[in-house]
Specification:
Elements (H helix, E strand, L loop, with lengths): L1 H36 L4 H18 L18 H4 L3 H33 L7 H16 L2 H12 L3 H25 L4 H8 L4 H35 L7 H10 L3 H30 L4
Length: 287
């Protein structure tokens, strides 16, 4: 009996190894073929890589310990490095506001649309199809493309960035939300339905308690994404710190590139920490 089992086990193992080799070979062939089509050249990447680190090295500020705390007119001091903080800090705050405002509005609308689009909420088929088609269309266009269109329509400023982030975030969250609703347990729904509960009551007391922590988790995750995206949208004139970053890059103000990137990293890290704590409290039912 042990011999038969060992023989069967070896057959299964050999089959798994053959399948792994076949699929690995196919993936490698597909990778090489797609790289060839895209004119990807590994040699060029390896040869040019040092130039990337050269640029990073140029952005490192030159600070001198003996004048580190001197006034803003002394080269090598912290004040001289951050002489544009009075401009950059309001732009960072504007970027945070863009991310928060677009996320809150999008999440609120996405909650409603998700229950309409979910297949287990007894919505009309044409209505579910319409919502899913609408959000699929919004997701097709990346935030940067929406931002360029909005800048052309509304001009340079925070409004195009807000609209671009809201449209794409709405589409992404709606899809994530209605998929979460569809994976919720239907036992509470059936129980309430057997007691004569209406559609809204079933959503409120059976589905919503199950998906609320998931909705919060996705919303916080999207908030972090929106801050990073709003930084990129500023590159095309859609408001925020991205405009300052692009100006510094174009004018070769390497010290200002570094301090702008440093502020972005600090804010992203802080938002990641705070949202993680809030997400944990919501999932644990502390709120």
């Amino acid at each position: 009996m042990n011999t038969d089992f060992h023989h069967y086990y070896q057959q299964i193992r050999n089959k798994q190894k053959r399948e792994a080799l076949v699929w690995s070979g196919l993936m490698l062939a597909l990778y090489l073929w797609s790289g060839n089509i895209a004119e990807f050249n590994l040699k060029t990447v390896l040869v040019s890589a040092p130039h990337f680190f050269d640029y990073i090295g140029q952005t490192v500020p030159v600070l001198h310990w003996n004048v580190l705390f001197a006034d803003g007119h002394t080269k090598g001091s912290l004040a001289y490095w951050g002489y544009r903080l009075n401009i950059q800090l309001p732009l960072i705050w504007e970027t945070i506001q863009l991310a928060i405002a677009s996320t809150i509005l999008s999440a609120a609308i996405a909650v409603v649309l998700s229950f309409v689009a979910a297949s287990n909420t007894d919505s009309a088929k044409w209505l579910k199809f319409s919502v899913r088609t609408f959000v699929a269309f919004l997701r097709t266009m990346p935030e940067l493309a929406w931002a360029v269109m909005c800048v052309m329509a509304f001009g340079v400023g925070a409004i195009p960035g807000f609209i671009a982030l809201t449209l794409h975030t709405l589409a992404s969250l709606t899809k994530l939300f209605y998929e979460a609703v569809e994976t919720a347990s239907d036992k509470p729904v059936r129980g309430l339905k057997s007691c004569g509960a209406g559609r809204l009551q079933r959503i409120r007391f059976a589905l919503w308690p199950q998906v609320q922590p998931i909705f919060a988790s996705y919303s916080f995750m999207r908030l972090e994404i929106n801050f990073r995206q709003s930084t990129i949208l500023g590159l095309v004139g859609a408001g925020g710190i991205g405009q300052e970053l692009m100006t510094s890059i174009k004018l070769d103000r390497y010290d200002q590139v570094s301090i702008t990137l440093l502020m972005i990293i600090i804010v992203v890290s802080a938002m990641d920490y705070i949202s993680g704590k809030l997400r944990k409290r919501i999932v644990e039912g502390a709120f």
